[in-house]
Write a structure and sequence with these properties.
Oligomer: homodimer
Number of helices of chain A: 10
Number of strands of chain A: 0
CATH class of one domain in chain A: Mainly Alpha
Largest interface: A-B, 45 and 45 residues
CATH topology of one domain in chain A: Tetracycline Repressor, domain 2
Helix content of chain A: over 70%
Radius of gyration of chain A: 19 Å
Largest sheet of chain A: none
Distance between the termini of chain A: 36 Å
Structural class of chain A: mainly alpha
Amino acid sequence: MTSIPSPAPRKHPLQNRSAESQRKMIEATLRLLDERDIELISVRDICREGGTSNGTFYHRFGTKERFFAFLVEDMLARREETAMRDLRDSELSMTDLAKVLARSAIRNFREHSGLLRSAMRRHIIGDPCWTPINHMAARIVEHFIERTTRVCGRKLDSHDQQAIHFAFTWLYGLLSYRTLRLNRLEQFYPPDDRFEEETIRTFTVIIESALPHDAIAGKP
Amino acid sequence: MTSIPSPAPRKHPLQNRSAESQRKMIEATLRLLDERDIELISVRDICREGGTSNGTFYHRFGTKERFFAFLVEDMLARREETAMRDLRDSELSMTDLAKVLARSAIRNFREHSGLLRSAMRRHIIGDPCWTPINHMAARIVEHFIERTTRVCGRKLDSHDQQAIHFAFTWLYGLLSYRTLRLNRLEQFYPPDDRFEEETIRTFTVIIESALPHDAIAGKP
């Protein structure tokens, strides 16, 4: 359905050295992306920053484009794994689950802010690199709705489902706005710890106003 | 403080024909911007779409850059005038005032979505065109805080002020996310009327959770 270049197949780390050099390249590139857009980063920059050779990079990833797609895929795989584990945690109330999901979304945006900024900029000019991010968000919210259904013991009507989707849209909107640095005036751009605290507080209010009353307190 | 090119001085419309041709160029450009980025629109496109001559355009605006800055300034002038009028309306409770401000923000983003999208894209690559938009948002929120102060009859502490700024940050984040079409999956991208309704409903919840209790019901 999409024309995103397939990421390079992940190789089994037969040697620690190989896994280690891949990890170094990923971390180096995330650092560089915090400073500038992917268009302004060369394979040579990545290898210099990561302390690996150009040959290792090309052998493993082929092109910078494939490496960029790999970085997005790698971020999503880890984010989805964490979210799905939280979604299965039957000790959490719906409100606590929402807080946990919001906190990991905030951290994911913070830890990958440069990568996400480059991906958003590409999306804006028509590149499909943002599509898998939206599909993952959709899967997380679908599971959140399924769990709400179990807590309530009845199927949610479309109005209730839309309200839950919309609550997450507010969260993704806020995180994207911050990631794109659309407003860095001091009063609109609190430091990270204050931002996280205020986001969790308000998201709790938003999600509780979206959830059916009988879902708020209950556990499945 | 900023290096934005100054907009061309607005000329007094000595002739109706002159005001009319300016209005046509503005409307034509807003229509074209809905379809594509400012970089992909030429002065010739604007004049053809607006039914005016290239000579009229250059006489009035000088360059496409100055015209783009003029479009932003023209949008802001109208938006701020409306917001300041609402902020002075002493019949409105703080909650109703928040709803009115949110509704006009939603409509402003909708009516200027192409213009705002081009401005955001330029902001992302370091252009200062978005700066006056943030300054206007800051003035509106400052006035909202001043009015809250009058309603409460005491100065708000910095925590209360931050909470109000943060409530508006959620709103601007949501509107920017939609304007950039960062997620057009059906469940995250409701039609305009449903989007407006849900945004107002949730923003009311957000602002009431940010306002001091004694400000919610009161009127100045």
